[in-house]
């Protein structure tokens, strides 16, 4: 017997109904209302059919059981008044499966994530292949499992393990899933279905009851959730603790009712919208630079300092051969150790160091990563150019030095551009690609493909001073100093920065890199060139100099904006207030956080208006992944879209218009209730047509 439904093909074998989930026109099974309602109808039939002894759930998609909901459908789901009824039907189905008198066996090959795993959790037995990956990653999108997963997982997994897995959004390998109790056994893919049918054909099932309510467990659950470092969503983490605790102290039905309420509340909230937006922009960035045919075999790096060593270590950890050149053999040895720690032994990629130019002629790409000096970079690039072949891509790693000013150092400037990596390179996912006017489009594509081969997300930005990230970050750091000069309490600046979502305040950020570097990079290289019409840069520079003279240097010196003991912060340095603030000056509570947020946002606005960015989504990606804009806000442009352009315009206008300029686009969108995400993508940054781009070009 074979029955073909829209999503499920049903066959019978040895008294077992085999349900193959195969959602049409999808490469991956997604779970929506049609899947849930169809499965419920099929299950009702099979549970009342005396000829059916057991049921097997499997996938018709090779190597994949399924995922959760289609993310593009979530806004519609959030606004649909019928969503509550859909969740009620889903939970009723899951309870019917969990209480089934007949065995239900889930046979999982490949990924089973989100809603697909929740369906499997209703089964009495879960079999997985060695390649299986199981998880409930909804928290990474600011959500919780909404298909009963927060309660059904408790039938299998210890509560503390379950809460850690869900709060962190972790996926488990087949071995770890079995060890945790999430799955029952690992079966070879060739025998997966036969084994599942054999188990189901017995007609016997071992009950998996919901844990007996125990108020003591709630405390353990809360502690386990708190132990997760940097959970992807604070809102989801809090909801998960509440839901698991409810299920363990009151019972499954109460837990499911609470799950429905929490799921809808989070789905309609700002944090989930931001995290889903970030998922989409990251996916789009990957899609734009797929370029597997452009993947390099060998990369060469000039400079074995922190950035150069990190780039080379990242290359070998991704299976790309690396050559590192430096005149200091000691630094080469340190770079070699760093590469070893990055996993070069595992990938079998070759790493070599040299004090001359051995191997450079065979490199597909060379990254110059010497000290941030235009003169040194020009000299180094000329030497690189003399060593490599005509097709070698040459890039310079810099955070702010204009690329056009270096381009004539190479004989073929069309194959040259900037690549701004972030420190530590092994961990930071962003790379800014900075073409100059003469960079060929093919070279940008190659650089993007190399970034993807290194596991990075590339964004293309204009060759304006500070590019996007260094420029916006400089404006944010300077706002911290402006607040000090206006009399703001340093502790209040830091507290309010964190309250609006920044992971650290501008003073701690300065301490981490040293105030001297802030002076050299953010003030001299960026602020003096592009921020003078917005803030009093000379006054800020004078303040920074006075702070340096007073010993406010940074964490590694033991004294910065904070005092340090054994490398740990020990409160605000009392010398800061004495140096920075005029007597009697103060800043009201709530102002510092707002100014820091709007400083970041308004500088981002100008970067869109002057064509530094190809699209506002790129600014969101770079801001979150590169310079610490709160991920829970989704980037500066998404934050504006979520707040409403008119509301943000009013907030900016409440402050000094000179310091917080709104540019051209924000007022236009405010008039028509428009959104930045709907703006047209530019083919390349630096497109003429804005009076702001002309002004910046003159300064360059």
TrEMBL record:
Residues 676-685 have a biased composition (Basic and acidic residues). InterPro entries: 3-OHacyl-CoA_DH_NAD-bd, 3HC_DH_C, 6-PGluconate_DH-like_C_sf, ClpP/crotonase-like_dom_sf, Enoyl-CoA_hydra/iso, FA_oxidation_alpha_subunit, NAD(P)-bd_dom_sf. Residues 299-463 form the 3-hydroxyacyl-CoA dehydrogenase NAD binding domain. Pathway: Lipid metabolism; fatty acid beta-oxidation. It comes from the Bacteria. Keywords: Fatty acid metabolism, Lipid degradation, Lipid metabolism, Lyase, Multifunctional enzyme, NAD, Oxidoreductase. GO terms for biological process: fatty acid beta-oxidation. Residues 674-700 are annotated as: Disordered. It catalyses: a (3S)-3-hydroxyacyl-CoA + NAD(+) = a 3-oxoacyl-CoA + NADH + H(+). One of its GO terms (molecular function) is NAD+ binding. Residues 466-564 form the 3-hydroxyacyl-CoA dehydrogenase C-terminal domain. The keyword Hydrolase does not apply. Pfam families: 3HCDH (PF00725), 3HCDH_N (PF02737), ECH_1 (PF00378). In the central section; belongs to the 3-hydroxyacyl-CoA dehydrogenase family. PANTHER family: TRIFUNCTIONAL ENZYME SUBUNIT ALPHA (PTHR43612), TRIFUNCTIONAL ENZYME SUBUNIT ALPHA, MITOCHONDRIAL (PTHR43612:SF3). This is Fatty oxidation complex alpha subunit FadJ.
């Amino acid at each position: 017997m074979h029955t073909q439904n829209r999503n499920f093909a049903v066959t019978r074998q040895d008294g077992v109904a085999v349900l193959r989930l195969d959602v049409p026109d999808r490469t991956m099974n997604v779970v929506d209302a049609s899947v849930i309602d169809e499965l419920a109808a099929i299950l009702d039939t099979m549970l009342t059919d005396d000829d059916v002894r057991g049921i097997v759930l499997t996938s018709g998609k090779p190597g994949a059981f399924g995922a959760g909901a289609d993310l593009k459908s979530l806004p519609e789901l959030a606004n649909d008044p019928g969503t509550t009824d859909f969740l009620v039907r889903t939970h009723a189905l899951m309870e019917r499966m969990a209480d089934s008198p007949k065995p239900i066996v889930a046979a999982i090959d490949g990924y089973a994530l989100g809603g697909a795993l929740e369906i499997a959790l209703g089964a009495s037995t879960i079999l997985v292949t060695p390649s299986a990956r199981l998880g409930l990653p909804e928290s990474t999108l600011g959500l919780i499992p909404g298909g009963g997963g927060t309660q059904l997982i408790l039938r299998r997994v210890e509560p503390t393990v379950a809460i850690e897995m869900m709060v962190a959004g972790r996926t488990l390998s087949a071995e770890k899933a079995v060890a945790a109790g999430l799955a029952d056994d690992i079966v070879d893919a060739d025998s997966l279905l036969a084994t599942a049918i054999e188990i189901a054909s017995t007609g016997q099932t071992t009950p998996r009851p919901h844990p007996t309510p125990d108020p003591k467990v709630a405390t353990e659950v809360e502690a386990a959730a708190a132990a997760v470092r940097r959970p992807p969503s604070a809102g989801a983490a809090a909801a998960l603790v509440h839901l698991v605790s409810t299920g363990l102290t009151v019972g499954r039905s109460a837990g499911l009712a609470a799950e429905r309420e929490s799921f809808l509340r989070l789905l309609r909230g700002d944090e989930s919208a931001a995290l889903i937006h970030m998922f989409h922009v990251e996916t789009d960035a990957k899609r734009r630079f797929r370029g597997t045919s452009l993947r390099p075999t060998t990369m060469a790096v000039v400079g074995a300092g922190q950035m150069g060593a990190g780039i080379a270590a990242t290359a070998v950890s991704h299976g790309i051969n690396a050559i590192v050149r430096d005149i200091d053999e000691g630094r080469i040895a340190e770079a070699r150790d760093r590469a070893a720690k990055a996993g070069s032994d595992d990938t079998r990629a070759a790493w070599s160091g040299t004090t001359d130019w051995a191997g450079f002629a065979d490199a597909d790409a060379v990254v110059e990563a010497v000290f941030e000096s235009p003169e040194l970079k020009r000299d180094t690039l000329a030497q690189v150019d003399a060593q490599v072949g005509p097709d070698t891509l040459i890039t310079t790693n810099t955070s702010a030095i204009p690329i056009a000013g270096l381009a004539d150092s190479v004989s073929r400037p069309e194959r040259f551009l900037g690549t701004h990596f972030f420190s530590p390179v092994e961990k930071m996912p962003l790379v800014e690609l900075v073409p100059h006017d003469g960079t060929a489009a093919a070279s940008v594509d190659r650089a993007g493909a190399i970034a993807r081969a290194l596991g990075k997300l590339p964004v293309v930005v204009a060759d304006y001073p500070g590019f996007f990230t260094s420029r916006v970050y400089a404006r944010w750091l300077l706002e911290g100093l402006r607040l000090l000069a206006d009399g703001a309490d340093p502790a209040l600046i830091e507290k309010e920065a964190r309250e609006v979502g920044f992971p650290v305040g501008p003073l701690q950020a300065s301490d981490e890199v040293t105030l001297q570097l802030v002076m050299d990079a953010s003030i001299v290289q960026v602020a003096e060139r592009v921020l003078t019409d917005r803030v009093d840069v000379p006054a800020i520079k004078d303040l920074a100099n006075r702070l340096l003279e007073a010993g406010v240097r940074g964490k590694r010196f033991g004294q910065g904006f904070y005092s340090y003991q054994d490398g740990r912060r020990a409160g605000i340095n009392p010398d800061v207030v004495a140096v920075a603030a005029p007597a009697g000056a103060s800043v009201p509570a709530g102002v510092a956080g707002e100014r820091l947020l709007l400083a970041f946002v308004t500088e981002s606005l100008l970067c869109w208006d002057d064509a530094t960015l190809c699209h506002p989504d790129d600014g969101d990606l770079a801001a979150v992944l590169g310079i610490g804009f709160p991920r829970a806000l989704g980037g500066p442009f998404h934050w504006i879209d979520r707040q409403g352009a008119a509301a943000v315009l009013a907030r900016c206008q409440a402050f000094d218009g000179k310091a917080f300029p709104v540019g051209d686009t924000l007022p236009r969108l405010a008039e028509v209730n428009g959104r930045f995400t709907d703006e047209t993508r530019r083919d390349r940054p630096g497109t003429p047509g804005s009076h702001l781009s002309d002004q910046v070009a003159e300064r360059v």
